[in-house]
Prior knowledge:
Layout lengths: L2 H29 L2 H13 L2 H6 L2 H6 L6 H9 L6 H14 L1 H14 L1
Helix pairs in contact: 1-2, 1-6, 2-6
Amino acid sequence: xxxxxxxxxxxxxxxxxxxxxxxxxxxxxxxxxxxxxxxxxxxxxxxxxxxxxxxxxxxxxxxxxxxxxxxxxxxxxxxxxxxxxxxxxxxxxxxxxxxxxxxxxxxxxxxxx
Length: 113
């Protein structure tokens, strides 16, 4: 495989994963509800609303630690989207990083309406 083909094969999915994560951040900010954003991503993983209502976030995120390092890396470089467990963890970290962001966004929406 040529260097250009390898770069495209690995580089394009990496760019796509980065875009997906950025979209997750923007969507959660615009919705103003990080919990709903996290729950929506988690629902993609379990497949239905009924199961999602009883599924706990921490065990779902903990599954990420069960992925073997080498196998996880090899499969990750060829994926177009990050694993859902990773996406849920990133949204949760994003919301915990700045808890005032969520309440400020809701205040702004209330003032503008």
